[in-house]
Amino acid sequence: MATSVRMRYLMLVDLACILVAIVMAFVIRYEALINIRPFLARNWTIFVVAPLVYLPVYYAFRLYYRLWRYASTKELMMITGASIAGTALLAVVNFGLLPLLDIPHMPSRSVWLLVGIFSWAFLGATRFLLRLIQERYRPQDLQRTGAFVGTPSRVLIAGAGDAGAMILREMMSNPALAYKVVGLVDDDPGKRNYSLYGVSVLGGRNDIPAIIEKFGVDEIIIAMPTAPGVQIRDIVRISEGAGIHPHTIPGIYELLDGTATLSQLRNVEIEDLLRREPVHTDFAAVQALLRGKRVLVTGGGGSIGSELCRQILRCQPFGLYLIGHGENSIFEIQNELLREAEKQARGGTPVEVRAYIADVRFGERILRLFRQIRPDVVFHAAAHKHVPLMEENPSEAITNNVLGTRNVLNAALACNVGRFVMISTDKAVNPTSVMGASKRTAELLVHDAATRSNRPYVAVRFGNVLGSRGSVVLTFKRQIAAGGPVTVTHPDVKRYFMTIPEAVQLVLQASVLGNGGEVFLLDMGEPVRIVDLAEDLIRLSGLEVGRDIEIEYTGMRPGEKLFEELFTSGEDYERTEHQKIFIAANASTFVPESLDASITALAQAAEDNDRDAIIRNLQNLIPEYTPQIMHKPVEENAAEPNKASASLRTASH
């Protein structure tokens, strides 16, 4: 009922506009504003024919069924199309049909053309005026808006790019949100003194304190999803120095669709401060690899495994299959993936999603699953990764990380899996922990399988992942919430960090590059001092180090190093065609001939729960493995990461 009433009103408005357009066309054509009546009388048929032509055309283009509150360029194109079609049809009727029927018609072609132009202008103007009215004065918002008219929150947006424009547009189109944007800041000199939707770019980040004081800013929103962490850190420092804790939208790795909305605003997190410049992933190549394939992910319920599943699903595989040991985590990610798969199916790309509860340590179970699924691509993310726990439980590190990887590889070889990617760690390089040594052993197993099968079976190494369940960030957050202290093992300990989405995107990219037997390393930038990480988290929580929260040094734990290295001795590494991925192409040459015998001995030692035998066998297999931390002077240790970073920079040239 409401739709039909609205349609009648719009038709009456359109009728009036068409008649006014005809009058204006005669006025302009004959330059006769006062004496226009004779011209109109002689051409009375146009007043009848034009509405009979235009209104049905408007109806045929469904202009009376649009929600004009959400009108965009698509609606403008429809309006233009309807006007052109109506004007063309009017010309056919006026200059073709009416003369044949001996009915008086309008002889002037210029009048006909002017009628079309004015009709188009009036049609567009009325529709977008309708949008403006509905946008500004929705009845359900008036009451809420009135409550905030006197005290809107005065907002400064940092970033005058696409994301800033999206946030600004949403704030302006929703007055009930009670935001008044006083301006934008951007370090691009080319944007200074320009305006975005009528809001001026007032300066750069260093002008923030003056802008806050001049305009009485209440909130600052950082709308810079592609900015590196150093810029975010600087804006946060400047804003907090002026007494405002800013909010931000997520980084580009989280905004995979590239869009930013107000609903995504959140407090600045440590991930934002450690953010690097975005990496341009060749998504088309990854999608070409996985589209229509059966893709299996072990450890699918873990931090890396679950994000792998999310991003693989976007590549439209035939099927996505998860294997995991923890039923709760598998249950949660399976439900999430099923919901997303249902959306994709509505778009015409159905994906089979299935989950299996299984332990990679049981080879027969894994082999049966592989024979049932028949995967084309396998991502092996299942592993124990906690360094101190694996020091205390070395047999678990062997049975899960080593023997579990062997079971998955044997099943992959038996089922002719075309591509295999194992998730490794930088702790596998010159390991000082059982966990690192077990992952290095797993790498050797992958290289051996690649050599025997001549298939692209590869390993991908990267450092600590922000937000993973074992991340130090989560530990620090819990300690801060409890009132401290925040515990750090050593003032000079450093680690490489990546965000989960970033790591997974690069893992997928590396999977495309592999030919077999290589180790890929993700460029993780510069290492971060853990104590700096702790201090940043304390400040982001609105607290001060030493006044509200103390930092305590507890000493290095078993198996830990002051710094992590990137490549093991003897590996020849270079950058790939992808700027953020290194490759050690000769990694398979380090596989010893006695690998099978060493793995058998490790399995027996693990079964006997013989820690000494496990350590001994790992040392025989991996000569660079040193169970005891070699305590060097701090100055010498601190220099090592710089040497590694310099080597990487040299390799890139």
Question: What is shown here, in short?
Answer:
The protein has 3 domains: 2-139, no CATH class; 149-273, 3-Layer(aba) Sandwich (Rossmann fold); 291-465 and 497-525 and 572-651, NAD(P)-binding Rossmann-like Domain (Rossmann fold). Helix 1 crosses helix 3 and helix 12 (303-313) packs across helix 19. It is 50% helix and 13% strand.
Report on the architecture of this protein:
The longest helix is centred in the first third of the chain and has 29 residues, at 2-30. The protein folds into three domains: 2-139, no CATH class; 149-273, NAD(P)-binding Rossmann-like Domain (Rossmann fold), CATH 3.40.50.720; 291-465 and 497-525 and 572-651, 3-Layer(aba) Sandwich (Rossmann fold), CATH 3.40.50.720. Helix 13 (327-346) links the parallel strand 9 and strand 10 (352-357). It has 653 residues and is of the alpha/beta class. It starts with a helix and ends with a helix. The chain is built from 23 helices and 22 strands. The chain has a nine-stranded mixed β-sheet with strand order 10-9-8-11-12-13-18-22-21, with helices on both faces. Strands 3-4-2-1-5-6-7 form a seven-stranded mixed β-sheet, sandwiched between helices.
